[in-house]
Amino acid sequence: MTLFLHDVTLTYPDGDGRLTALDAVELEVPAGTLTAIVGPSGSGKSSLLAVAATLVTPDSGRVVVADRDTARLGAAEKAALRREEIGIVFQQPNLLASLTAAEQLQVMAHLSGRPARQLRRRALELLDAVGLADKADRRPHQLSGGQRQRVNIARALMNEPSVLLVDEPTSALDHERGAAVLDLLVTLTRERSTATVLVTHDHAHLDRMDRTATMTDGRLTHGARPAEPPAAVPAA
Ligand code: ADP
Ligand code: MG
């Protein structure tokens, strides 16, 4: 199981008491499948991604990423796990204004110690995969909002993560461009066998996801849709 959360509870300090952001959450995401999470603002969706990304340690429960039980890892091991196994796409593409699309990806993977030429080749391959083969040398201000979000997604894949966590990637896009980004995420999940979790407010495309779940006041309810594996996934 590439991503596995069991009985995860997370609270934040809230005045004199605690606010329960995640309440006994269960989540299993096999490689090559995409789970969409919907739910109202403030229900705990981003907190769930932060826990899955090992950026936040829950009060209780198990978080297993790429077969590693994160409770057993020290801070440095967790940082390495994040770098090597987890790709994160936030709502706003945080691109560096002075870098080209290809360079955004190359700096991301710089820490991996791979040779520059190999990083460049991988960056161009990923930009091609997200439909931006001809935009590799553009800087952010020369790209549309949808194109910037594609660079953001490609960047998250630079280190070949086994887990891809995506928080509301279409909120700044119009309906058509948002749909294209969701399509792209489904395709990348299949092709790269990532365990993908997608937080979205866009209910229009949920039928294209493998599984859906709804967050309500920190409780995750799994959809009624059957979770049969998709046809095109290679054996993990
Ligand atoms: P969503 O992404 O669904 O909008 P969040 O996970 O961001 O929800 O937030 C869930 C709840 O936890 C909200 O009530 C929010 O105000 C609270 N919260 C989120 N982050 C923090 C934090 N760092 N400290 C305190 N409360 C937080
Ligand atoms: Mg959020």
UniProtKB/TrEMBL annotation:
<feature type="domain" description="ABC transporter">
    <location>
        <begin position="3"/>
        <end position="235"/>
    </location>
</feature>
<dbReference type="InterPro" id="IPR017911">
    <property type="entry name" value="MacB-like_ATP-bd"/>
</dbReference>
<dbReference type="InterPro" id="IPR003439">
    <property type="entry name" value="ABC_transporter-like_ATP-bd"/>
</dbReference>
<dbReference type="GO" id="GO:0005886">
    <property type="term" value="C:plasma membrane"/>
</dbReference>
<keyword id="KW-0547">Nucleotide-binding</keyword>
<dbReference type="Pfam" id="PF00005">
    <property type="entry name" value="ABC_tran"/>
</dbReference>
<protein>
    <submittedName>
        <fullName>ABC transporter ATP-binding protein</fullName>
    </submittedName>
</protein>
<keyword id="KW-0813">Transport</keyword>
<dbReference type="InterPro" id="IPR027417">
    <property type="entry name" value="P-loop_NTPase"/>
</dbReference>
<dbReference type="InterPro" id="IPR015854">
    <property type="entry name" value="ABC_transpr_LolD-like"/>
</dbReference>
<dbReference type="InterPro" id="IPR017871">
    <property type="entry name" value="ABC_transporter-like_CS"/>
</dbReference>
<dbReference type="GO" id="GO:0005524">
    <property type="term" value="F:ATP binding"/>
</dbReference>
<keyword id="KW-0067">ATP-binding</keyword>
<dbReference type="GO" id="GO:0022857">
    <property type="term" value="F:transmembrane transporter activity"/>
</dbReference>
<dbReference type="InterPro" id="IPR003593">
    <property type="entry name" value="AAA+_ATPase"/>
</dbReference>
<dbReference type="GO" id="GO:0016887">
    <property type="term" value="F:ATP hydrolysis activity"/>
</dbReference>
